[in-house]
Amino acid sequence: xxxxxxxxxxxxxxxxxQAFRDDPHRDRPARVKIFGGxxxxxxxxxxxxxxxxxxxxxxxxxxxxxxxxxKAVFLPNGFDVDTFKPTPSSRIKIRAELGFxxxxxxxxxxxxxxxxxxxxxxxxxxxxxGKRVPQSRxxxxxxxxxxxxxxxxxxxxxxxxxxxYALLGERNDVSALFSAMDVACLSSKSE
Length: 191
Known about the structure:
Structural class: alpha/beta
Helix content: 25-40%
Number of helices: 6
Radius of gyration: 22 Å
Strand order of the largest sheet: 5-4-3-6
Low-confidence stretches: none
Shape: elongated
């Protein structure tokens, strides 16, 4: 679909911008248009649409005739690679805290307990990997993803959460958790 919804939304933003410009004295509610997304390196069309969104946002936000009544922003889907840069000290510290060794193969998923985050797919893959690679270990973190959450445990009762699994709940040290992982996964259904 090549960002069809985003393209329609930015075109609606341009129409709204033009309406503000055509009749600057008309009483209209202020609006903020927020766009988000990402494009793989090979998705040229999606990249062009993201560029269009940023160009339109820059023009709308700088227009003195519109002022504060219309703003547009693009929020990229991703994370700051400097903040989440792996460090050897965090790797050692977190693995020791979890009882994992440096030779363990650690796979992690950081996502809140929510059906859209699809922990089921992650846990199925973890179970299969664990059978093939005995030194596999698994980190799961996020709001509600803990051994203290009965709803989580009941939902995934078919999985044996043994010492290979660390169910950590919500954490403030996500960058350190990423440092402890060999592979970070996101199994979300919609992101």
